[in-house]
Design brief:
It is a single chain. The protein has one helix and four strands; from the N terminus they run βββαβ. It has 69 residues and is mainly beta. The protein has one domain. The protein has a four-stranded mixed sheet with strand order 1-2-4-3. β3, α1 and β4 form a beta-alpha-beta unit. It is globular, with a radius of gyration of 14 Å. The C terminus is likely disordered.
Length: 69
């Protein structure tokens, strides 16, 4: 299986970078990384899920920004 990069439409037009792997009709599994990581942290797991017929969707979480006065 090959990992594919894509952009997803988020809230209010924000773009979210993602990668997908596995069969198009596989049961979807969303993988979100922890602090200081990216969607690429899930490479081994996404390959394993694809091997078992799942469709993994690894997303890059956006940093949270607070508006301080």
């Amino acid at each position: 299986m090959t990992q594919r990069a894509t952009m997803l439409a988020g809230h209010e037009g924000h773009q979210i970078a993602a990668s997908t792997e596995g069969p198009e009709n596989g049961f979807p599994v969303v993988l979100a990384h922890g602090g200081g990581q990216t969607r690429r942290s899930w490479l081994v797991v996404s390959q394993l899920l694809a091997r078992y017929g799942f469709r993994s969707i690894e997303i890059d979480l956006r940093g949270q920004c607070e508006n301080r006065n």
